[in-house]
Design brief:
154 residues; mainly beta; four-stranded mixed beta sheet; four-stranded antiparallel beta sheet; 1 helix; elongated
């Protein structure tokens, strides 16, 4: 087994030694980690995601917005091939005969890693006037982006 992670498109591609059924994937049994000892260890167990790959040895799993944003928000995880490792349980997916695959408990390094190189886009904004303290009225600007951003970069 091998895998690649594209943080730009938000797709995890899993490659198996035989055909598996994409419809049986349980993404919540996949963990992406940096493979460092505590206290530097960081990990994210996926919360969901569905593949439309059908039956194949190569499965593309689009990450959920929550998982992708959590990974992008963690500066010590999934920023390069150096801090991107994968583990999964044996019931994560089944082959075409319904057999579970072998668990990957030892962290597996990404065979290919693509960084997020797309700038965030402003989705919406609001401006409001806070008059809760009459003598100190303040304008409040709220910005909503399509992905997590670092506040110090806004």
């Amino acid at each position: 087994s091998s895998y690649s992670l594209n943080m730009n498109s938000g797709v995890l591609t899993l490659t198996f030694t035989e055909a598996v059924q994409a419809s049986t994937i349980n993404a919540s049994l996949i963990t992406i980690e940096n493979n460092l000892p505590p206290p530097q260890r960081a990990s994210r167990t996926l919360t969901g995601g569905r593949s439309t790959s059908g039956t194949s040895a190569i499965i593309e799993l689009p990450l959920t917005a929550a998982d992708l944003n959590a990974l992008r928000n963690n500066t010590g995880l999934a920023t390069s091939s150096v801090d991107t490792f994968l583990t999964f349980l044996d019931t994560m997916i089944t082959d075409t005969d319904g057999n579970s695959i072998a668990a990957k408990k030892t962290p597996l390094a990404a065979s290919l890693f693509t960084a997020d190189v797309t700038s965030p886009a402003l989705v919406s904004y609001t401006v409001s006037l806070d008059t809760s303290v009459p003598s100190q009225a303040a304008l409040i600007l709220s910005l909503t982006f399509n992905e997590v951003v670092k506040c110090e970069h806004v």
